[in-house]
Amino acid sequence: MLLCFWVACLVGGLAAALAVPPWGVPVVAVMALATAAISVARARQAMATGAALLAVGVVLGNWSLRLAAQPELLTPYVESREPLDLTAEVIRGPDVSVAGAGHVLLALRRIGGQPAHGTVSLSVAKGVPAVAPGDVVTARAHMHSAAGLANPGLPDGRLAARARGLDAFAGAGEWADLTIVTRGHWWGPRRLAFRLRQEMARMIDARVEGASRPLLHGLILGERAGIGRAAEDGFRAAGATHILSVSGLHLATVAAMLYFVLRRLVWLFPRLALRHNPGALAAGLAIPGVLFYALLTGEAVATLRSAIMAVVGFAAVAARRPFSFAASAAIAAATLLAGSPFLLLDVSFQLSFVSVIALALFGRALIASPPRGPAPPWRRALRWLLGGLAASTAAALVTGPLVAHHFGEVTPAAPIGNLVLVPLVELWVVPLGLVGAVVALVSPVLGAVPLLLAAWGAQVALWVAEVFRTAAPVVLVASPGPATTFVLVTASAALLAAVGAVPGRRRPWLITTAICLALAGGAMAFEQWRRFTRETLEVTFLDVGQGDAAVIEGPRGFTALIDGGGTYDGAFDPGERVVEPFLRSRGIRTLDLVALSHPHPDHLNGLLRIMERFPVRQLWTSGDDGRNPMYTKLLALARAGEVATPTPGLLARNAMELRALGPWLGDRIGPPPGVSVNDASLVVRLSYAGRSLLFSGDLELDGEAELVARGGTGLPVRSDVLKVPHHGSRTSSTSGLLEAVGPSLAVISLGRQNRFGFPRPEVLERYGERHIRVLRTDLDGAVTVRIEKNGAIEATCVRPCR
């Protein structure tokens, strides 16, 4: 247990460095070192070592943050707007995304003929590159920074990229843009695993049809792209999304199956079995197989965790030493974090380790001891059923706060869902599917039987998931903060410890549970009280890439959303990945108003997720459908949710006003005939405490001229803050608009190094000539404008405001 304690201290130090403010890092380090010195003086060596490791974790985490904040190795190239000629070696892939694009992980060798080093994720928009790990390729591609999106309360995209070991992203038009210079050696482990995965996928495709095919791809090979939305929702309602791709439990199942098969094979050779311990020999032979399966399935974090634990366990068996589950988990955590301390922020890392620790510490304690003597079959079956329910309940209780924190939802049916789906998948679908796909490589006829049985099991799993999707609730909640989440996890662990403890030792655990629940409940209640009693206005222009999304948090809990971002190809949903997590992190459960400026995908598509998962009181649109079918879906969601869709006008709440300023169709808001979709943008002006913000959509020359003309007739146009029209395009931000609005601050919402070249230099010059401060979400991250009750106004950025 000492090893576990020491690794926990190291992890605690890393967490402190990543979570506390910069000024708190040296304080924590000094306190840890002081504790270590006191422990040494009192001859408590274990405590001293733990305190020292805590200090090491703090220093290591802070050092990693400093490295991540330094200029990137590839900065001169990622700032280029021109495509670059890359020469690189394929590390992993190609993989297929949900949108059908191909992704390849590359180790750079040269850029434009100059030596270069770094790891790049290359996305190919059309088709899947016909390359394999080990190939050296050339590609003409645009490079982008790995900075990622930056929004308050959400994971830092830069650190997420660093956790994956990425230095930059790149994009190419089609797979024909890649040229193979040299083929890799056939004996490379990753290349062998990739080729085997391709052949196994071909065997599955040849024998399995329908919805079972993509599910088998996900369960056996880790290829999750083809699994439908309905299936994902069903597994989510059952709290079992972790089994949709190759999880740690999958690898554990495969490792156990491999071990028993190898041990049985050893027994077939009596001389070998007499000279060597069959279990030890089988364990030693299973280690390469486990590592190869981790390569075969894509090297996900949960899979690597399980692989390391399996290797430690097999090594213990081979050396005839007792196996320690806790020690193996500690070694796995230390190994993964040694590769990247930022993995501590990864949701897969957190859920994987927390669930396995919950099962190890509390799963057994919740299972009643077996009765002495023989028991009837029904009693053994009942005990197995109750044991499985206890284990899944333990895992669900401890991981529940983490799921709420990261995804803003709670799945009460998770214990039952895991009890039904996990055995079905792990004991039926995965073993039969894996055996069938491998055997089919040698004999398609023999492999067809287990593959068809696995497909039947997959169909049963999909049916069960559909039952949960329609019958089991998914409770949407406000996401607790990191500290509150930690307290809730502690409360769950203490409750399970109390249930598993002997009667005389339950009281301390129950007291701990009560204290933690009181602290967490008080913190969440205080946040809601503060939100509904404050007298300030905050507008956050979210960083959603190339698109618009702004959240208004008004006095006394008023909330509104103007646009939701979106992409044209659907490869990334800002509504799911940015807007919803931000709203839930702020404790927002309902929206008083959702306003759509115009129906282009980069403004509309992200709103669909919000309309599906949030109660909304009103929806404002200009009435222009823009020939976008998603607009019809938006209105259908509004009708299904009984959302009012009045003609935009004036909305006044708590000394705050939201007023629609255009477009005008006669004497009401509506799209005039012959006007472009951009110029028919719904323009909204927000006023509070004598200050105002103007949301201009994607207005261009004609739309801006109409707005200025209306301002001349008395319509209030002048504003302190201007959301820059059309992301800073050449055909927007005319001198007439800037003179009419007269802002002191302008905010441009756009994607980093977008393909349109926004913002245009001449547009920035017009703002500069008028001494208007310009903030940009691509460079500054999300921008928050705060207006106090007395009219004081300030702007802050996730990244330091320029």
Class by SSE composition: alpha+beta
Helix content: 40-55%
Mean pLDDT: 86
Helix run count: 26
Strand fraction equals: 15-25%
What ranges have pLDDT less than 50 throughout 5 or more consecutive residues?
Answer: none
Radius of gyration: 29 Å
- Number of β-strand runs: 25
**Overall shape:** globular
What this model shows, in words?
With 802 residues, this protein is α+β, with helices and mostly antiparallel strands. 51% of the residues lie in helices and 15% in strands. The chain has 26 helices and 25 strands. The strands form 5 sheets. A 7-stranded mixed beta sheet has the order 14-13-12-11-10-24-25, with no helix packed on it. β12, α20 and β13 form a beta-alpha-beta unit. α14 (347-363) runs antiparallel to α15, α18 packs antiparallel against α19 and α23 packs parallel to α24. The longest helix is centred in the middle third of the chain and has 31 residues, at 377-407. The two termini are 49 Å apart.
